[in-house]
Amino acid sequence: MTDAPLKLFNSLTRQVEVFEPVHPGEARVYSCGPTVYNYPHIGNMRAYVFADVLGRTLSWKGYNLTHVINITDVGHLTDDADAGEDKMEKMAAEKAQSIWDIAEHYKQAYWADVRALNIRQPAQWTVATDYVPQMIAFAEGIADKHCYQLNSGLYFDVSTVADYGRLARANTEEGEGRIEAVEGKRNAADFAIWRKTPAGETRQMEWDSPWGRGAPGWHLECSVMSGEVLGFPFDIHTGGIDHREIHHPNEIAQNQAFCCSNGLDDPRNSGANIWMHNNFLVERSGKMSKSSGEFLRLQLLVDKGYHPLAYRLMCLQAHYRSELEFSWEGLGAALTRLKRMVMAVGTLADVASQPEAEHPKFAPVLAKFDEAMADDLGTPIALTALEDALAVKKVDAGIKRAVVEDMDAVLGLNLFGLTRADLRIRPKSATITEAEIEDALARRKEARAAKDFAASDAIRDELAAQGVEVMDGDPLGWEWKLS
Ligand code: AMP
Ligand code: ZN
């Protein structure tokens, strides 16, 4: 049941719109990818969980999906608006390593998080440094009408396109406080298309261009890779909400220059029909900032014993356009909810799925699920529909399994792949093995059966000393956890 028309919030119009693909039956999506100068934090990963849910929903709705995510390995400065240093060059200098090695290392780390969060592989990962000739060609195409040269490189004049900055809804000339880092810019919001290497310096990554030896600007990369691979206009462009302010308005301006310079009343001129942004994951003490020393990486969650998919569920419990506050309690609650689902799914483990069969008892929950996802990706309600489906009684288990599999294909919690043991909290610091715990628990059971409560309490204390909490009468049937 996938009848509800898919509606998505378009940041460009600030409205929920019915999705109408550019190419019938297809959906082409581009997501701004990570800058691979450091590990991603879990906030960054929220952006890819969101893009993944969008892609899965488009598949659920029957569209043939082409999803592209880029990897930025050059050009992203420490300030989004052209100030500061190239993030990649800076990290390479700090670590005294080659940029190429840095990029490879953090790209692999990002991909590991992508896999751990059960994010589907896109049709293509585009790597910025593979597209430099195309970037130069794109820039040559718009340079005469839209750009000007300064000593430091080639700049885009934002006054040459209609409606600059409409996506941000900000007064970009004054009042927005954008730092004017480059002398000679015509408008404060003008941005670098090509950054010339200063005389007497060499960069690790630089290329020859009509504007001197140097490197592309970050915004140029995404315009070029999205247009090259998906063709303008494509359907949906995604990113975190910070990109709504600078990066995406600049991409849009370039795309307008490339296609026609016309205004944004016709969304096709922006390069993508729909621009979607996930809101931020926030954390009060600043642990989301990569400059804060120990920041919140997915690996930290795993080291503390949480399964990565508990974090995915935590993301799905909030609507993607709402800010989500991270807390360990919240993560623990998501883990408990996931355990309940996995336990319920456990009863279907040995059942053959019957995708073709239907049962009237599932019609309302499937409709609820479909309507929730179709309504701008309403994952919080969709999750309750999944739980409703798991709770349906006196139905053929094969049909139930098929329904739950369908829903999980959209939510991506891997419910049939997880076991209860996978979800047990097991911090990296714990040294006691599961066999030792099970052995102690068996001895304790015997002691209790023999009414030797002193011995049973002693075993319980021994376990507690090693961080194992014995959970008598746990409603989820968990006998112990490591805390
Ligand atoms: P970056 O590697 O900095 O380009 O960021 C990768 C993605 O994460 C971009 O789409 C950002 O908009 C997004 N992002 C950055 N911080 C957060 C956050 N705290 N919560 C959600 N998304 C974020
Ligand atoms: Zn981008």
Q: Whole-number average pLDDT?
A: 92
Q: Helicity level, as a percent range? A: 40-55%
Beta content comes to 5-15%
Q: What is the general shape?
A: globular
- Termini Cα gap: 42 Å
The total of helices stands at: 15
Reported for the largest beta sheet, the result is: 5 strands, parallel
Q: Can you tell me the residue ranges where pLDDT is under 50 for at least 5 consecutive residues? A: none
CATH class of the largest domain: Alpha Beta
Question: In the residues, how many domains can be counted?
Answer: 3
- CATH fold category name of the largest domain: Rossmann fold
Question: What does this molecule look like?
Answer:
The chain has three domains: about 5-280, HUPs (Rossmann fold), CATH 3.40.50; about 305-415, Isoleucyl-tRNA Synthetase, Domain 1; about 435-480. By secondary structure, the chain is α/β, with parallel strands linked by helices. Helix 1 (about 40-60) packs across helix 12 (about 395-410) and helix 11 packs antiparallel against helix 12. The two termini are about 40 Å apart. The protein is globular, with a radius of gyration of 26 Å. Helices cover about 40% and strands about 15% of the residues. The strands form five sheets. It has a five-stranded parallel β-sheet. It contains 15 helices and 15 strands. Adenosine monophosphate binds near residues 47 and 239.
Distinctive features:
single chain; 483 residues; alpha/beta; Isoleucyl-tRNA Synthetase, Domain 1; five-stranded parallel sheet; 15 helices; 14% strand; globular; binds zinc ion
